[in-house]
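DM between two lab members

TW: hey, do you still have the Solute carrier family 22 member 7 entry open?
JB: yeah, one sec
JB: this one, 525 aa:
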Amino acid sequence: MKFEDLLLEIGGFGRFQILILFILCLPRINLPMHFLLHNFLAATPSHHCAIPHQEAFVNLTMEEVLLISIPREPDGTFRSCEMFSQPQFHLLLNSSLQPENNSIIQHCQHGWVYDDSQFTSTISTQWDLVCEQRGLNQATATFFFIGVTMGAVVFGYLSDRFGRKAMLLLSLVCSVIFGMLSAASVSYSMLAILRTLTGVALSGVSLIVLPLGMEWVDIQHRTFSGILTSIFWSIGNMLLAMVAYLVREWHWLLVAVTGPCLLSIVCLWWVPESARWLIANGKVKQAHRHLLRCARMNGRKDFAEDVPLTTYAQRIVLQWQHKKPGGSYSYISLFRTPVLRKISLCSGAVWFGVAFSYYGMSMNLTGFGLNMYLSQFVFGVIEIPAKMIMYVVMNRAGRRQSQAWALILTGLCIGANVIIPKPFTSLRSVVAIMGKGFSEAAFTAVFLYTSELYPTVLRQNGMGYTSFVARLGGALAPLVFLLDEVWRSLPEVTYCGVAVCCGSVAFLLPETLNAHLPEGIEDVE
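TW: and the structure you got?
JB:
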């Protein structure tokens, strides 16, 4: 007897499952508010070198002071990172003259002056993370994703060992603690460490929410539940744009995006532990209690009273134990058998490509042709129809084809914008919108697809491993922007190449459409 058979008897998708899914969607909203927070937390407003006051400047306007103190770019704008060693008063007579000797140009010596019309303060303006320190600014996102990477390994193992719900609660509590402490950072080092720890904590939320919901849902509604929870990621995207628009000071912005975790902690009280996990670990009495509650909420009261669920559960336990080769499972188990090894290697490559291209696009708001708040909001809006279409396509064309082509088309859209000339802004915007839609479709598919590929006894280990690889992609994505100093289009070419190659790897994975979730390793092999 399989768990799906028992689930159908007590209601595979009723009020019980709907309640669980909506509660689990609350922490899902909070994830993008932290994962994409770098766009606003570390935003760099326009800036120029600070000019020390001199008596000779008394009768000059600010524009004239800048004219004689800071060299210009070819387009006429003032340079952000350089200044004249001595005021060039002759430029007041003819501003089109260029300095005859570049030796009079030097790096900023007295700090920077920032345009505060858009941001009251960001970490860039707080600690002058510009020019030579630009790399540290981009590294803030990398530190966060390094934390998420480490958290994927930790929470993937712990949730298989100690249960989904307990680890989700621990993850949310730690997210609140580290998030609030981040807002109180007094140095860049302190912020970097606390953002890394916040990433570790939030990784548990990202990793556990979807499998916990899906393990309570029948086969027919599995895709729907995966799409539903991912839609709330898009809602979080849109909420981030609105919160960032209202809160322009980085300390309070961190508080604003961390606070909702408290609501998730309270609501988690009504979410039961996964009955699949309880039965797989021999905790039949606890599973029986939750299954009984499910049957009653779904209107199967007669079934709950007449049929001994414990007997069903014990039969499933005996069946799983018969399949289980003995000993506990770990990440090494993902590579011990041939089919699982192939699944793990291929899914790891796909996850890397999905995350690398998704965060590469999501962290390039200024290249979208709109202001960054509107870009963030539009990116969130675009994702919802992409998920809806993916819901239909995955159920018609299958998981494998949907996953592969969504990621390949993401790469092709990114590559197309390298070729399309800059003056064609409307066309570039349309292609960028399409690319973002395909990127989100690929991310939606990979969460659902991966959770169907791994057996119950290894599902969280599998999700932990693939999430680990994905976060490596997320950690590298913001650093790739620094390659524009080598060649302006090199970042986009890199994102394009990785997405197309990793998308092609998805064709090597098995199809899981309408298949039972595997319970043991033998089911996969």
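TW: got it. Residues 134-162 form the longest helix (29 residues). The CA atoms of residues 29 and 233 lie 5 Å apart.
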